[in-house]
Amino acid sequence: MKILVFIKQVPDTINVRIDPKTGNLDRTGLKGVINPFDNNALEAALKIKEETGAAITVVSMGPPQTEESLRIALAMGCDEAVILCAKELGGADTLATGYTLASAVKKIGDYDLLLFGRHAVDADTGQCGPIVAEFLNLPQITFATSIKVEENHVICERDFDDYIQKVKVKLPAVVTVCAEINEPRYPSPLGIMKAMKKPLITWTHEDMGCDTERIGKNGSPSIVREIFEPEHTQKDTIMFSGETDEIAKSIVDLLEQQHLI
Amino acid sequence: MDKSLYKGIWIFAEQKEGILNGTPLELLAKAIELKKINGDEITALLLGNHVEPLADTLISYGADQVIVIDHPVLKEYKTIPYTEATVKMIKKYKPSIFLFGATTIGRDLAPRIMARLGTGLTADCLDLKLEKDGTLVQTKPSYGGNIMCTITIPDHRPQMSTVRPKVFTAIHAEPGRTGKIVLENIDVTEDESTQVLSVSPKETNGEPIDKAEIIVAGGRGIKAKEELALLEELAKLIGGRVAVSRPLVDEKWMTHEDQIGQSGNTVKARFILNIGISGAVQYIVGMQNSDCIVTINKNPTADIFHISSYGAVADYSELLPAIITEIKKRK
Amino acid sequence: MLFDFTQEQLMIRDMVRDFTAKEVEPRDKWMDENGFDHELHKKLCDAGLMGVHLPEQYGGADGDAITSAIVIHELAKGSASTALFVDAHWLAADIILYHGTEKQKSKYLPMAAAGKIFAFGLTESSAGSDAAGIKSQAVKDGDTWVLNGGKAWITNSGVADVYIILAKTQPELGNKGISAFIVEEGTEGLKIGKKEDKMGMRGTCTTELSFDNIRLPASAMVGAENSGFKIAMMALDGARISVGAIAAGLAEHAMTIAKHYANERTTFGKPIAKHQGIMFKFADMAAHIEATTLMTYNVARMKAEGKRHTLEAAMAKLFGSEMCTKTCMECIQVLGGYGYSKEYHVERLARDAKLLEIGEGTSEILRMLIGATILAK
User: Fold this and answer.
1) Fold of B209-330
2) Is A192 within 8 Å of C56 when comparing Cβ atoms?
3) Is the overall model pTM greater than 0.90, yes or no?
4) What number is the ipTM of this complex?
5) Interface A:C, Cβ pairs < 8 A
6) For the residues of C94-158, what is the DSSP string, one character each?
7) Where are chain B's structural domains?
8) Touching subunits for chain C (3+ Cβ pairs under 8 A)
């Protein structure tokens, strides 16, 4: 069985700020880590590998430093890694990204299960999994909270807002996973030592035979006009003060006013 | 692409078992605002089986037109048949704008449609504005809500968005309002690759949190799991329920369904009392639209006071028992 | 740094740092109040951290002495107890690694790598610094050794699966008549005694042991007969590198808490970090931590290169442990009243620190060793 896991490198903190001078994201001191939900996807793949002996290829589209994250995925236990990296691939929205990832899948050729995290914590879209599924004409299971492979099917529980749905889908298929699905493992020191020797290949858009009109900025219907920090609406907060009993009385007065008691 | 061929503000009328989700009504409210800019007609797309009766409700909440595809294959939501039906309608009617609720279904369906059409989709929008030339300006959070982006889709149609639930408020319905109902009789192919094995409601302790009107919320400042009992007691006395911020879900004191925040649930409570919560952005985006926000925190510089109507700098382990005693005295 | 870590070492460092922040540090206070954390032990095993320096053929990660120092250093930044637990485990396992027969290595090292807990038993209730004064004795009876006596202050005792016990096999030869034995938990005659109620490092389990006619096969002896003292002293060299690493990590942890406090607490109109008196404290702490860190990694490098490092390891422990206690106490002072409260962590770190001046070679013993060596050069 062949599993492809798609990961994205994101900043290690989402407490990011905008550089007031440039109006762009202030990237100083931002280390790259694997998107947390992608760690869940990797763990799901590794568990299936432990049970079925599947081969795992981890794929990521990004700038050269994405290699660090791919090495960590290899250290966790993936067999090989592919980085999709070229200047022309940059500036992509989700449509162009999905097209690029699907092109990589077509080049890889054989696959049974494509795993994604439910969304990336920087862009917060969750679109790439379904877009890749559409381009490859595969069924999709989003928001999976459990996954089991049975012969040529995958059975997942899915987290709908107020109910759980259990589905059985024929492979090959795309699955996006939620954090509840598992507890990702840490890359062990032995895994880290071995990771250095595992294959990490670079593909450009040319290697994948991509249509240059569909990659990067060219292939992005969406554009970002502006980024800004949200304003906290400064209310005039009425503060209660005094001894504990006095504050308690003021708060209970408020509860009465609000018809809560 | 000739953008002038694309007109109309469409919303996806999500329903389950003949009951409308809350999001179509919220989207209609926003669509009414957008319509004021260029007069585009508002259409609700309703897919399902035996769902035609819902059309009148959609019209009473603002839809000028409801397109209904009633087909047994659409009885239960499945990505591929719903994509097929929706794309057929989009190709036939050419809307300029298509809005979905950012529900599980919305976030599953919209990107598939968007990829099939090769257009743009902005996820989890918190605001939408329409410019005179028909450009939809979409505002969405990223980096967990720390950064806001405005996004447009200049040269592709339809301009698609998924909108975070409970951000817009449905208007008061106008029963008896008239509108057009179109029954589209199309073929929809069953999806043989996907089989729904079971559907089970989530075990909720009481009412689902996003419907809660009165909430007592605890955060990292709560020192021990046992202390949640204080919050439970107070919640009971004021007819509300307890909720938590993310750290307490990570500690496994409560579950994700009790969680308020970016990665949890969005609430719009009538009254919410924050205890031991500092007010990280990821929490605030989940409750900032609540009416009366009261905060108790030991730290006077906690960010949460900025969005609170009332506050007290105090230790909850002393103040809560005092509040509870005072309430009991007055009963 | 005097040298660069390899890419693998950097990745391991980052992984242990991440693991410590998420899994270890949040549990340190609980361990102080409740003792050894079996759940955390399991996590350490699952993360592959119990056998980092053991050869891959035995299930380890083939890390060198620098890599092991990195692991201990990073763990100590979250929990000194956890770092000490791993240090003591490695100290015992190393005796088999460096002196065991192939049979002993094949049997025991995979156990150590997988996370079965090892403990090193030299100290007795009346023989600590004077190791030659131990009274535990192993007497030959045919092909078997019969072990009697006991141990005290053994880190990991009470939770260990395997003990390395030093006992007199030829008492008349003093420290030249000591041998090392492998004694597995559950062996008849091995009794776990009183658990110590320690000042700090309460996340490690420390008990007395008693040996009541334990019968051991000849194959239980590690290394040559009567070479036990030398074996033990060699093992302690490696352990002292760990202590230097723990001292550096623990002091840094305390300083980080104090730094955070100093930047927020205001007195006389400004954060106390802006007062020179406080600034000077941090200058001294930072310089000493830097010195300890460099010394420790330097000794680790020497060990990795196969060089003799007894003197340097002793210096790293002596300097590091004393600086760590002073730093932790100073951090309590910076926090003032809050430093004196259990809620603010630094008092626990100070209680943890003190052991580093005592265990695995007291500062007094180290001063004898270092002084004598220097003066003889």
Assistant:
1) Rossmann fold (3.40.50)
2) no
3) no
4) 0.90
5) 47
6) HHHHHH--HHHHHHHHHHHHHT--EEEE--BTTBSS-GGG---EEEEETTEEEEEEEEEEEETTT
7) 3-183, 209-330
8) A
